[in-house]
Amino acid sequence: MRSSANSRTLSKKAIAPVDEARMALRGETFAVAWSALLVSLFALGYCFSRNLLLLSGDAVAHMAIARRLIDSTNAGLSQLGSVWLPLPHLLIVPFIWKMSWWQSGLAGAFPSMGAYVFGCAGIYRLARVWLKPKPALIAVLFFALNPGLLYAQTTALNEPLCVAEMIWAVVFLVEYLRALDQNDIPHAVRHLTYCGLVLVCSAFTRYDGWIFATFAWIVALVPLLRRRSLWKTRVGGAFVLFTVMLAMCPLLWMGYCARQFGDPLDFLRGPYSARAIEIRTSKPGAPHYPGWHSMWVAGLYFLKASELGAIWDHLTDLLLVLAAAGSVIAGWRFKAQHILAAALLWVPLPFYAYSVAYGSVPIFIPPWWPHSYYNTRYGMEMLPVFALALGFLAAWCAEWVVRRKPKFEGWVIAALAILIVGNSYVLIKATPLVLQEMIANSRTRIPFEAAYARGLEDLPPNCTILAYLSEHPGAYQRAGIDLKRTINEADYYRWKPALKDPAKAADYVITTDDDPVAKAVKAHPEGLTLIDIVCSTGQPCVRFYRSDLHKADSISPR
Predict the structure, then answer these.
(1) Which pTM was predicted?
(2) How far is 356 from 326, CA to CA, in rounded Å?
(3) For 81-92, b where at least 16 C-beta lie within 10 A, e where not — what string?
(4) In the 3-class helix/strand/coil scheme, how is 354-403 assigned residue by residue?
(5) What are phi and psi of 553, to 5 degrees?
(6) Residues 6+ positions from 476 with CB-CB distance below 8 Å
(7) Residue 335: its pLDDT value, please?
């Protein structure tokens, strides 16, 4: 009995330092998170005061989908659509109820800000697996002070959420592998389950998450193949659950698409898919976009967009060299265990190389043909690997200096921190690449939607409207129009009957050039009176028709 008691005492003494280290790391991570929140709020104040939250057409569309979930004639999950995955929209829903938050864009900012804070805490937590606090701070500084990310996290864009999910999936995966090395089965099971939950969120955020989850599953499987005895422990059951969780995500989404749109692959080949948009917008005989059917060229465009968004444009090639050097140092000089899990942060590179080459998802950057802006924000997904690699590089530099001049270690870290702050300042002064794209691509859209909104505001307050909303939902957002007053393409029961007789469907009918409503009006003009036309340079014309035949009960929901 005495020896047993002594063994328990020794065990407690052995575990105590581990628990203390975990608590200390938790405290450091919370400090980073609170600091990131302050930076996030400052960025929100800066962007909100300059009306930058609604520059992105995609951000406006994300909020419109979220609004449809609660504000439409057939509100509910059927309003999610098929092309964009649902989680970002569901996270916006609690904030989109407030009309003023929808109109200002704040509804989309709050979930992205939360993702930014979690992403900053996660990159620090991941770096601390291998690095001391000071080099880990270098990694989080480079990540947290990136101006493009700081802008994106004030909008409804889903890149900040996707990046945070990738980071935390790797954190939990690394902890799972470390726990297995220590034969700590309870912690291994817990962290593999957490990793699975994060990957499920990732798989419902962006399609990148599907590929990322596949590679994570392979990494999680490796130790079970090496140690077959683990299958007989709780780890084996946890891995089965992990596999089922990941496999169900695409199956559930394809099932939803099959049920709602009649095609399980509607997100790939439906009317709103990237391929369909490319076919509609491509001019006959025009050259293909750069990277078309060439993964090498596509990868170069993605990498260049990543570099331009992360560092002063005169040093873009240097950043890639430093990232590669940091990755090599992590695996060689620091003998970083489980670095294969951290290497998952490189997955966006092959994913986007393939997506650009064969998935009808072009990336345009100013320095290279066609010298324009398109999808440059995708490059933000390389920020975690850049940041972590620079953290390893900073640790190596500090260690090299310590061996020669021990007193200069702090100076090395301080110098690197100053360089990172200086780089962020230069990027802000030059306008971050992501913000440049939003400004360039909103120059004609925003004045047009503002004029469109003024036309909507002149309509009677309780009238019903037949309109196609996919192209310019921002006009209804600006005007503060309740979407349940509209009959639009998302109203599956009322839309098609309304197109067969527009004048009897709504009080007012609004068309843009060649949209489905315009075609319906051309085919059935009876009972419609043109009352207003709104035109703007570089945008289609909007025509407002008053119905002389509409009765409120002429088309009722099913």
Answers:
(1) 0.94
(2) 27
(3) bbbbbbbbbbbb
(4) HHHHHCCCCCECCCCCCCCCECHHHHHHHHHHHHHHHHHHHHHHHHHHHH
(5) -105, 15
(6) 64, 453, 456, 469, 483, 486
(7) 66
The domain segmentation of the chain, as residue ranges, is 28-439, 445-547
8 Å CB contact between 147 and 427? yes
Within 8 A by CB and 6+ apart from 137, the residues are: 124, 413, 417
pLDDT greater than 90 at residue 345: yes
Question: Is 372 exposed, middle or buried (CB count within 10 Å of its CB: 0-12, 13-18, 19+)?
Answer: middle
Segment 193-248, tens digit of pLDDT: 999 999 999 999 999 999 999 999 999 999 999 999 999 999 999 999 999 999 99
Give the C-alpha separation, 160 to 180, whole Å: 31
Q: Percentage helix, strand, coil, to 5, in the chain? A: 70, 5, 25
d(C-alpha 70, C-alpha 60), whole Å: 16
Element (H, E) at 178: helix 159-181
CA-CA distance, 442 to 445, in Å (whole number)? 5
Q: State percent of the chain over pLDDT 70.
A: 95
Instruction: Give residue 478's identity as a one-letter amino acid code.
Output: R
pLDDT at 402: 77
